[in-house]
Amino acid sequence: xxGVTQSPTHLIKTRGQQVTLRCSPKSGHDTVSWYQQALGQGxxxxxxxxxxxxxxxxxxxxxxxxxxxxxYSSELNVNAxxxxxxxLYLCAxxxxxxxxxxxxxGEGSWLTVV
Amino acid sequence: xxxxxxxxxxxxxxxxxxxxxxxxxxxxxxxxGLFWYKQPSSGEMIFLIxxxxxxxxxxxxxxxxxxxxKARKSANLVISASQLGDSAMYFCAMRDDNAGNMLTFGGGTxxxxxx
Lengths: 114, 115
Fold this sequence. Notes:
heterodimer, A: four-stranded antiparallel beta sheet, 0% helix
């Protein structure tokens, strides 16, 4: 049973560029959330998707957008990258209707903006 | 608004001893969940233990137990028989059951296990 998978694991982008990060949830999960974790801090909630729609959003600008596909996988897109976007981006997987309350995370995507 | 506070930025513990990592929370909602995660230097956030606000007993998972004191709004993680591999960042997080599966995290505690 595959856990939460994220890609790429590491990437370097230049200011002003755009980036797409990908996430496949744990088998049986239908909800994907994205978090940004700056160095030395706890993760901050970006947004959550289920049924292919954004359901909740944290305090992040519109440069951050996402998508969820029919197979529940998800993408996080960040446009017009800033140096401050350098962080670990974590994808979290959960179920809205299944048994259990656990929320599982992937290994994250390390983004460096130069 | 929800808030999670972890007051210990860093802690040392001797191998094979027990250690308690503190977590206090603030919420006005009666239904919520509390989580602890371990994050090694690789970055992966590893789920350790969960406690629901209506659970009557403290949660336990192997060497991990959660000391849940609802009236004091605290949810401390106890790690028994510490191992060198327990050295990592530990995060306490809360989910408001009325707000989907969004987690609010504390600032974390860095645990260092001494041989």
